[in-house]
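Records of this kind hold a single protein each, on a pair of labelled lines. With that in mind, the following record should read easily:
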Amino acid sequence: MQLIRKDPNRPVLLDRSETIGGLPLRTLSFPMLEQTGCVDHVFTTREGGVSSGDCAAMNFNYDREDDPMVVDANYQRIADAFGGGRSLRHFVCAHQGHTANVRVVDVRDGGEGTLFRRWGRDVDGMVTNTPGLILGVFTADCTPVYLVDPVHRAVGLVHSGWRGTAAGIAAGAIDLMRTHFGTDPADLVCAVGPSICRDCYEISEDVAAVFRDRFGTQADQILLSPHTRDGALHCQLDLWQANRLVLENAGVKPEHIQVTDVCTRCNAKLLFSHRAAGERRGNCAAFLSLKP
């Protein structure tokens, strides 16, 4: 299935197919993160898993109408792709709640979200300096943001929907990395992953007001094409640019940020999209791990 890009003449994400366990697996990845040499990472597509029905075929959410053993198998395929003999006990996946909460994790958290749930529904990001752990967040239009500190060998991964973006969850993760690992934001290499694009993401005035309050004069860069529909004011929200601004305002160098060229809604047959399918869907995932 062809990947639809916002600018096909300037592709950003690598579209990669490989064979894992005799079966094909298709994922997306960022060259800038790969060039750090210290991490494994992917953004998953719907191709390459063993789920069926509305979740076909690569679903990572146990709360959907999917067989848990099948979801386990999907996770194991990612572990096999990352290598190093990793398994479900190496994943750390939050039970997301559209919060701005970020947690520092280590080897004691391995298996969170796959083998057990101890945290509750209040975490939308994780940071770690433990090699081999695989951080994971789930999306179906929301934005994953990858954070890599190649100097102190630490990483962070956040789920940043409109609420998380407005609250600056990526900046909160950077603060934790600075406190716990000594990270200098200027050293970070970051990527804003696939999510719904501004052309597909119409929001109401109450949501726009939250972004005006959060971003001030920068709000004009992310709230676009104001228009009236059914007597109410609406506009288009650019989550990609909003998260770029969050990162830059936190001290990340602009040249160290790579922003996706892939919209989940435009690619609803290849990527899960809530705007396209509602609740009758699975979830894609962003995964990030320090190399063992």
